[in-house]
Amino acid sequence: MKDVTNLYQEFGDERLPPGQRETSKFPVLSKGETPTWDPDTWEFTVTGAVENSLSFTWEEFRDLPTETQRQDFHCVTGWSKFDCEFTGVPFTDLAERAGVTDDAVHVMFVALDDYTTDLPLEDCLRDEVLFAWAFDGKPLAREHGGPLRVVTPHRYAYKGAKWVTGVEFLTEPELGYWERRGYSETADPWKEERYS
Ligand SMILES: Nc1nc2c(c(=O)[nH]1)N[C@H]1C(S)=C(S)[C@@H](COP(=O)(O)O)O[C@H]1N2
Ligand SMILES: [Mo]
């Protein structure tokens, strides 16, 4: 397993970002109800500024090569959970398969609960950004985003869309659900970029 819990060294002095409190629990934070999903009709798409748009059924997605990483998780509301073990498909793998075009600068993630979140492309093209379907070796619980969620240990966790079904590469920045409501576009926990 790859341990990326030292990635904070790139951003700050302390593993626990300023203004955060460590918790051993794994709280659930969702804007609404946990959406239902059907493995027979579930579809994941990669679209936008790419050479090849991609589409996966659940079975196809599960056949993709995966990585398991030990990561930290920082919620913008002030709690951090250390040593989360996520298994999933690296963002960079999908970006490579799709062939991101030179004019792409930004990324939008879309989810089953109509949640969206955006990040600059360079913040997504990192080894630690995973489309994760397992947590601590077990299928991701539905309230935590099962069947599939994004994890972004270098950014506040609202950048990690639970129930993710699509990623769109953009040639201009657009804002996601919380970003339109005043949360930070870049969301660096060590700079306490909570609000914009
Ligand atoms: N689709 C979707 N993804 C989401 C959210 C949401 O409401 N819907 N909440 C975000 C927020 S604010 C946080 S802190 C994390 C929480 O993940 P957890 O519920 O697994 O702790 O998911 C993020 N991803
Ligand atoms: Mo959050």
From TrEMBL:
<protein>
    <submittedName>
        <fullName>Sulfite oxidase-like oxidoreductase</fullName>
    </submittedName>
</protein>
<feature type="domain" description="Oxidoreductase molybdopterin-binding">
    <location>
        <begin position="32"/>
        <end position="178"/>
    </location>
</feature>
<dbReference type="InterPro" id="IPR000572">
    <property type="entry name" value="OxRdtase_Mopterin-bd_dom"/>
</dbReference>
<dbReference type="InterPro" id="IPR036374">
    <property type="entry name" value="OxRdtase_Mopterin-bd_sf"/>
</dbReference>
<dbReference type="Pfam" id="PF00174">
    <property type="entry name" value="Oxidored_molyb"/>
</dbReference>
